[in-house]
Specification:
single chain; mainly alpha
Length: about 100
């Protein structure tokens, strides 16, 4: 799915939900992906289109790391890089590393 796909889907879902919900509070749109860079600038360029398309959460998924012998070290390195720059949006961004013990 692309950010443009999300924009289309998000607008349609919000319109559909708006007609059927008793409350007008916003709801979250979660996107899962893996950013394979250590550059904050590259992070921002990857995440920004998703935020602009309506995503309120980015879950950093690292499923491929779980089968590597040094998985914990790789995931810890990724977590220590922190989230994308706060100046890209006021949307909530969460960086979670998924780890499954083998």
């Amino acid at each position: 799915m692309s950010a443009e796909d999300l924009r289309f889907i998000s607008l349609r879902v919000r319109a559909w939900m708006g007609d059927r919900r008793a409350v007008s509070t916003p709801f979250d749109v979660v996107i899962e992906g893996e950013i394979k860079t250590e550059s904050q600038g590259e992070w921002n360029s990857i995440v920004s289109p998703w935020i602009e398309a309506g995503a309120t959460w980015w879950l950093e998924s690292m499923w491929g790391y779980t089968r590597q012998k040094n998985a914990e070290d790789l995931i810890l390195e990724r977590v220590q890089l922190g989230p994308p720059s706060k100046n890209i949006s006021s949307a909530r961004i969460e960086m979670r590393a998924h780890f499954r013990s083998i």
